[in-house]
């Protein structure tokens, strides 16, 4: 994936940079423009400050995290900073060792998207002892006072949007997400949640379930398996194969040999969605959503799922423009390195069990087939050719 462009406009910080659009993939392309970024109280350029920033990402098994790592690295490099970018390969000890090495090498700041938000207490204490500021990236790090800032999306709202898209797919709501159609069902749905060691997964689940609950209470929605509690429906490490296996088991235990038909699935991530869709197709469901294929939600606007949405197989996804997230992480890191603090727009929501971590929250959008062009293509996130092929250039 190639990094196209992102704009950092940190509130209260004199920082602005952009990376020019270039042909190819979605978020993550190589920069073609020069930066003209200034900041700090002495009026000097950021490139004069210099320094090395460690960036720890959780995995390369998801195109989303590759794009995030590339985007953060590109933004920092554009401003003249050295970057130590590492991917943890979904292995907690590997990520911990990578962060240990970054601290030992003397990085000036850390940007961490944790594999397990509870497993880095020792590393964060070492960072604090070395006066290295720590920015949690999209996933809150729990159980430590040594988390200085958090950049993420409004994760509860993401969950609301996932549930809203499912209700639209079922025909209960119009595409505006507000207007009820008068459809009363009952519609049979199943619930999936994200990894229990990812703090965001709980926010997604809570936002979604709070949105669905009135329709469950009214009988408009029914969960035939009766599996709705977070621990039961959570998919460890967000693994596609695990989601596929659980969907296969649900079909076998609840639907096969009965008159029940599945109408929709709440899925919190595109990788899980594709596993769920594969299980449904193997289990005898076929065609498109318009033909009666179960409506499946998602998240991250991964190109393979965007293609499925364009083909009316997956119903929707949530677009979290990670270019903006990467830009905000860069803005926040630079603020610390210049001796200040990033400006937060939320100082109440994200309690990691030890402290409320000051945060900057970004907005997200629901992607349907009808707005792929306006949200993803026109913004340069994906090209029309990539959407048609389902592959990044």
UniProtKB/TrEMBL annotation:
It comes from the Bacteria. Residues 29-50 have a biased composition (Low complexity). The keyword Signal applies. InterPro entries: Bact_Solute-Bind_Prot2, ChvE-like, Peripla_BP_I, SBP_2_dom. PROSITE patterns: PROKAR_LIPOPROTEIN. Residues 28-52 are annotated as: Disordered. It is found in: Cell envelope. Transmembrane segments: none annotated. GO terms for molecular function: carbohydrate binding. The keyword Zinc does not apply. GO terms for cellular component: outer membrane-bounded periplasmic space. Residues 1-23 form the signal peptide. Keywords: Signal. SUPFAM superfamilies: Periplasmic binding protein-like I. Its main location: other. Gene3D superfamilies: 3.40.50.2300. Residues 53-340 form the Periplasmic binding protein domain. PANTHER family: D-XYLOSE-BINDING PERIPLASMIC PROTEIN. This is Monosaccharide ABC transporter substrate-binding protein, CUT2 family. It comes from Demequina mangrovi. The lineage of its organism: Bacteria, Bacillati, Actinomycetota, Actinomycetes, Micrococcales.
């Amino acid at each position: 994936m190639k990094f196209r462009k992102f704009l950092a406009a940190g509130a209260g910080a004199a920082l602005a940079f952009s990376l020019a659009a270039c042909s190819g993939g979605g978020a993550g392309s190589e920069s073609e423009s020069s930066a003209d970024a200034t900041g700090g109280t002495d009026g000097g350029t950021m490139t004069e400050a210099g320094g090395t920033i460690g960036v720890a990402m959780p995995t390369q098994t998801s195109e989303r995290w590759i794009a995030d790592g590339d985007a953060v690295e590109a933004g920092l490099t554009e401003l003249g900073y050295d970057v130590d970018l590492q991917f943890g390969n979904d292995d907690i000890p590997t990520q911990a060792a990578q962060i240990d090495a970054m601290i030992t090498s003397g990085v000036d700041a850390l940007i961490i998207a944790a594999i397990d938000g509870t497993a880095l207490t020792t590393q964060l204490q070492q960072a604090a002892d070395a006066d290295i500021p720590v920015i949690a990236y999209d996933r809150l790090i729990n159980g430590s006072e040594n988390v200085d800032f958090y950049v993420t999306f409004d994760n509860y709202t993401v969950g609301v949007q996932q549930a809203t898209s499912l209700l639209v797919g079922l025909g209960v709501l119009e595409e505006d997400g507000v207007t009820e159609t008068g459809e009363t069902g009952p519609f049979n749905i199943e619930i999936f949640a994200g990894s229990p060691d990812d703090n965001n997964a709980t926010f997604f689940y809570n936002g979604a379930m709070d949105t669905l609950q009135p329709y469950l209470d009214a009988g408009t929605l029914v969960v035939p398996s009766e599996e709705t509690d977070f621990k039961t429906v959570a998919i460890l490490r967000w693994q596609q194969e695990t989601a596929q296996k659980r969907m296969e088991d649900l079909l076998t235990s609840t639907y096969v040999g009965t008159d029940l038909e599945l109408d929709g699935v709440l899925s919190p991530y595109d990788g899980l969605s594709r596993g769920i869709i594969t299980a449904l197709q193997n289990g005898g469901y076929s065609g498109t959503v318009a033909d009666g294929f179960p409506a499946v939600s998602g998240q991250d606007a991964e190109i393979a799922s965007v293609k499925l949405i364009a083909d009316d197989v997956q119903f929707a996804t949530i677009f979290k423009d990670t270019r903006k997230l990467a830009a905000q992480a860069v803005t926040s890191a630079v603020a610390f390195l210049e001796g200040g603090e990033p400006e937060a727009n939320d100082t109440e929501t994200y309690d990691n069990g030890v402290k409320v971590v000051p945060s900057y929250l970004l907005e997200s959008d629901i992607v349907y087939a009808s707005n792929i062009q306006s949200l993803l293509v026109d913004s340069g996130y994906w090209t029309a050719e990539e959407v048609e092929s389902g592959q990044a250039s």
